[in-house]
Task: structure prediction
Amino acid sequence: MNSHENVCLCLIVPVYNEQAVLPLFLQRTDTVLQKMGIRYEYLFIDDGSTDRSADWLKQQAANRPEIKVVTLSRNFGKEAALTAGLSLATASAVVCIDADLQDPPELIEDLYQKYVEGYDQVYAQRDNRDSDSWLKRTTAHMFYKIYNLFAAYPMPYNAGDFRLLSRRTVQALLQLPERERFMKGLFAWVGFKTAAVPYRREARPAGTTKWNYWKLWNFALNGLTASTTLPLKLCTYFGGVVSLISFLFAAWTAFKKLYWGNPVSGYTSLMVAILFFSGVQLITLGVIGEYLSRIFTEVKCRPSYLIDEKINF
Ligand code: UDP
Ligand code: MG
Result:
């Protein structure tokens, strides 16, 4: 059981160009949190918005000390914004929630209930993806399938970043030093007592998504390479199998030549073999390159984000 007294809940909200929905967001979360009757605070991370989001947040913070605002020096991406929030939060429990109201604030009460029961990580799990297009649904499903096949620590299906984390979970996450932060993978890695709460993801009331398929593809690649080296191993084994077949084929060709002589032919098979093996080599090099580029990013040791301003700290 996590103690109910003196619990301070902190809402970590990454914000990137959300001026259209922020007022509604604050209104809805306020209603929920006031009803719950616990101490709470907000930690908005403005991820380099180019609209009036940051100004609006600062205005709110001026009248309400429980609204903390951090602005980053530019847009660093949601993963970095969340990391900034986690490292600045001091509350006994935090909830990571999107500003766009796709994560219904009313669910915070259920997440919190599980926390009181003693869970360290309580994630919200979408009960269906009807609101997504067929393509998005299928690709998302494939990603989870492949990820869980490859990664040592499986990720729950259809669970995003909307979740409650206890203090010690936050501290565990902060111990992970990587710069390329695939949060869903990190959440799965830290473990602790975990529970799920089902929910229905709503449509955005305003504003637009910051994702497109190219970004999602890269996000998936990042997640996969950050969590497993299995693709590299597959290349090794694949290379081994292909070498073995080549060896057998070479022996057969030599045998044929010795017994039946060598009428010149075989242009097609030669071309097919050359093209096939060049392709395999290029793909393998590509896989190595994917890892190499990420090692390069990591060894540079740059911070994942830079803070511009901190308000109400
Ligand atoms: N976000 C951010 N930095 C970014 C992109 C998005 O902080 O570079 C925030 C955004 O303001 C929102 C949350 O991350 O609060 C989720 O973004 P979005 O709704 O675009 O993602 P989706 O729900 O489509 O996955
Ligand atoms: Mg969204």
In short: Residues 14-16, 18, 47, 75, 77-78, 81, 98-100, 102, 209-211 surround uridine-5'-diphosphate (ligand 1) (CB under 6 Å). The chain has a mean pLDDT of 88.
